[in-house]
Every structure is written in structure tokens, then in C-alpha cells.
Amino acid sequence: MASNVNPTVRRRRLGQELRRLRELKGMTAEEVAERLLVSQSKISRLENGRRSISQRDVRDLCGVYEVEDQRIVDSLMQMAKDSRQQGWWHAFGDIPYSVYIGLETDAESLRVYEPQIITGLLQTRAYAEAIIRGGSPEASEADNDKRVEVRLRRQGRITADTEPLRLWVVLDEASLHRIVGSRPVMREQLEHLIEMSQLPHITVQVLPFEVGAHAGINGQYSILEFADAADSSVVYIEGVTSDLYLEKPLDVQKYTVMYEHLRAQSLNVDQSRQLIERLAKDYAR
Predict the structure, then answer these.
(1) Is pLDDT at 231 greater than 80 in this prediction?
(2) Cα–Cα dist 11/6, whole Å
């Protein structure tokens, strides 16, 4: 697969274009499903980019939408072909959050709120191993090892020499006090966090206990933004058995405003680093 072909992003862009064509035709998803003798859920999944789109699907939909420009049809067919290729993460087998990895791989910036743990992109190997094994006690050792390797591979987005991912992380103070693995593991993790927070494209803030109730009280979430104007921002909420992706402008705006409140309630960058440094020294005792 060409390195610049991201199947997740191709599916997403193709789905957006198919939705635009349907809306230009003035048809509902139900009407399209009836014409093609398929379920409405299939049309929805094709449009939201959560499943692969075959060239046959594209051909049939273009027929329903009466697309006469063959160049448009050919372009959409090529996008469908690209969307069925595999990203680097597919080499690790069935990854539950593969859609998210595809989005993260192509994102320009990422804002994260983590209430319980250090966010994955900033984890050390030892911390990641302890988190993954503790969170999946019934998984096989091989599966856990695979998840660790995927997590570490994802970190290439923030260590890249050119166009690294811009990362802004708000960590609840609880994540710094929760002893994951052991005290030495925590000391190494916090020292790594301090080092990474000094990179110009990475910002780390700590939301202190004293704030009390706050805008992120309902849990973890991430906001992904993309360089291409055709790609709308996405709010990602991780679940145990399924994940939630929000793309409607009003939803994204609501979570963005929540994030601004979290940033305002958090310690500033210098204060956050000082707290992390103090706790790292405590773990060394």
C-alpha cells in the first residue's frame, strides 16, 4: 500500500461525497435503500465511513443519483478501491479501535482529556504494558503484547521529524497519583511526560483535585482535527465494547467549548510541569 493512502480517511471522504450526492438529488437514505434493495443501515454505514465501500456500491449509488460526469464516477471508484487497502495497523490483526487509529494517523492536531491514566501517545513501554494487562485481565499474553506494540507504533505521529501531530493533553491529577505497574514505572513515566511536554508541538496541563466538579466530569474524550478542509473534526469517545464518533458541527462545538473550560480550569504549563516533577521525585523515594 502506498504510504500516503489512508483507507480510513478514504472511506470517510468517499462517504461524505456520497452523502452530498444523495442530498443534491433530494433523496433520503430510506429511499436509496429501497431503490437498491438494501437496508437503510447499510446506506448510513457507507456514508459515515465506518465500513468498506466496494466499487460496485459506488457504481450502484452513482446510478441512483444519476451522476452523468464519468470523471466523478471514476474518481469515486478509485477512492473506493483505495479504501479497501490496508493501513499499517492491519498487520497486527483485529484491532478494536482501528477506525480511530486511521483517523489519528491522518490528523493534524489532537486534543485529549484523560481522567484516569496518562494518554496513550505519551506512555512508556512499561506503563503501557501495565495499563493494557491490567485493563484486559482475561486477554491472552499474545493479544496484550500486540496491543502494546500498536500503542508504541502510534507514537510515531508525535516523534516524526516532519509535520508531527500537534498534541494538547489535559490530565486529571488522579492519573498522576494512580500507581500503574510500580513506583519505578511511575517515576519513569512522569519523567518521560516531562520530557515530551517540552517539545514545541506538545502541551500538557494538569487538572488539579481542588477544582472539584468540572466540564470533563463525564469522562475521557478526544477531538481530532485535519489539515484538509474537506475533513470535518471528529470527537472520539472510547467504549468497552464499542466506540462513539461524533462529527455533527453542533456536537463538535459542544465538546470544543467543554475543552476550553478544562484548559482554563487546569494549571498552566509551567505549574503542571512543576507538579509532575514533584510527584516524579516522590516516586523515586
Answers:
(1) no
(2) 9
The residue with greater pLDDT, 257 or 227, is 257
Tell me how crowded residue 281 is: count the other CB atoms within 10 A of its CB: 12
Asked, colleague to colleague, whether 7-83 and 90-284 share their fold, the answer is: no
Distances (CA, A) of 71 to 33, 75, 136: 25, 6, 48
Report whether CATH 1.10.10 matches the domain 90-284.
no
Q: Write down the domain spans for the chain.
A: 7-83, 90-284
Beta strands in the chain (DSSP E): 109-114, 166-172, 202-207, 221-225, 234-237, 244-246
pLDDT in tens, 152-182: 999 999 999 999 999 999 999 999 999 999 9
Pairing relation of β-strands 109-114 and 221-225? Answer: antiparallel
33-75 pLDDT per residue, tens: 888 888 888 888 888 776 678 888 888 889 888 888 888 888 8
Instruction: Dump strand ranges (E) for 137-277.
Output: 166-172, 202-207, 221-225, 234-237, 244-246
Q: Which CATH class is domain 7-83?
A: mainly alpha
Contact status, residue 108 vs residue 166, Cβ threshold 8 Å: yes
Q: Is 64 helix (H, G, I), strand (E, B) or coil?
A: helix
